[in-house]
Amino acid sequence: MDPPYPGLLHVRKIDLANFQVATSETARDINRRIVLNLIRKHQPVSRADLSRRSGLQRSTVSSITEQLIQERWITEGATGHLPRGRKPTFLHLNGGRAGIIGIDLRPLSTTIALGGLDNQFLTQETFATDRDPQKFTAELCGRLHELMASQPDIHYEGIGVALPGRVDSHTQRLLFAPNLGWRDVDMKTPLELATGLPVEVENDANVCALGELWSAQYAEEMNDMLAVAVTEGVGVGMVINRQLVRGPNGIAGEFGHVVFDENGPPCNCGNKGCWEVFASNSAAVRFYQDSTPRSAVPKSILPSPTFDDILQLEKRGDRLAGAALDRMARHLGAGIAMLVMGIAPEVVMIFGEVTEAWHRVGPIVDRIVKERIPMSSKTKVLPTNASELPRLHGTISLVLQKHFGAPAIA
């Protein structure tokens, strides 16, 4: 197999202090995931085609697909037509097989959605996020009970949770969410006890990155990708060599708290002048408020505007709202230039409501990135579509990765 980069030998060292030998069960698990991913990518597909694409013997493919059919991961559909011989039966993913609950927790609001393998949502609801983590978790458990009771015939596969802070990669505890003011919060255990379902908890930027790997049009061609989540703060999910990088205790990617100006405004993390105090939704709101006399603020958004208000005002031609977005865009571009210089990813994907104004923000970001990088860069900076709920789709992939992702052996 060719290394992921021409001219570079790709070596993954085995940790001899902590390793697991490959067994026949490991091989079966790998083959199963290969077949499942091939069906997902090429559906409708026949068993013979799966054998050709995978290199596995037909008997092995037949055994795996029969197991997947019994477990309702895939279904048999129409039969094909050949000039002679046995007519092939085509296989599909079973879109209705699993009910996966996605939870997108943000400082102001939280959204719960019920989705399936087909990436479609059956239902969703949004409610205010209580600032007290214990009260919030209790309310969330109650709403999950109501959701599951309203859909009793669904086979529930698990729950994926996106949190606006750093999550310990081993315990899945929330370490610190500056914009929530939460520290050392365990959401996984109470949710599992309340629902009886396995729960996967992850940082929201990492969730965005996983969702992009799962369903994006660029997923097949991306080895290195950064997901920049622009919300009340700024977070970065890093995919290097098609692997999500979490770092020790899951704190990798906290570029939003890199100090850009030590004399800048205070950040909720405790520092001053972090990137996110200049490039986040909250920053744009502050820029607008600082430049607008209170008497000039439309009565419809008093006492305090939201980022959505800024977007709507810009659409109506408000000069000061446009200037606030321009200023945010310049700082966003400066931070992205830093990421491109340091990591040189193929793609930087932008997530968040700011993409609704990309017609204005995007050209400024592109200009700043080009100005600050002295050599030619092939990195693409691309917006996602906020209306397609990429964070929620990411929570679905967070659950499905244990079935479709490559298993770790060592």
Q: Oligomer, anyone?
A: single chain
- Could you tell me the CATH topology label of the largest domain: Nucleotidyltransferase, domain 5
CATH class annotation of the largest domain: Alpha Beta
Distance between the termini: 19 Å
Structural class: alpha/beta
Q: How many distinct domains?
A: 3
Overall geometry: globular
Please provide the ordered H/E string of secondary-structure elements: HHHEEEEEHEEEEHEHEEEHHHHEHEH
Detail the topology: elements first, then pairings.
Elements: H1 24-42, H2 47-54, H3 58-70, E1 74-79, E2 89-93, E3 99-105, E4 109-115, E5 121-128, H4 133-150, E6 156-163, E7 166-167, E8 174-177, E9 182-185, H5 188-195, E10 199-203, H6 204-215, E11 225-230, E12 234-240, E13 243-245, H7 276-279, H8 281-291, H9 307-315, H10 319-343, E14 347-351, H11 358-372, E15 380-383, H12 390-404
Parallel strand pairs: 3-6, 6-10, 11-14, 14-15
Antiparallel strand pairs: 1-2, 3-4, 4-5, 7-8, 8-9, 11-12, 12-13
Helix pairs in contact: 1-3, 2-3, 4-5, 6-12, 8-10, 9-10, 10-11
Short description:
The protein is of the alpha/beta class.
Keywords:
single chain, 410 residues, alpha/beta, Arc Repressor Mutant, subunit A, Nucleotidyltransferase, domain 5, 3 domains, 5-stranded mixed sheet, 12 helices, 15 strands, 20% strand, globular, disordered N terminus
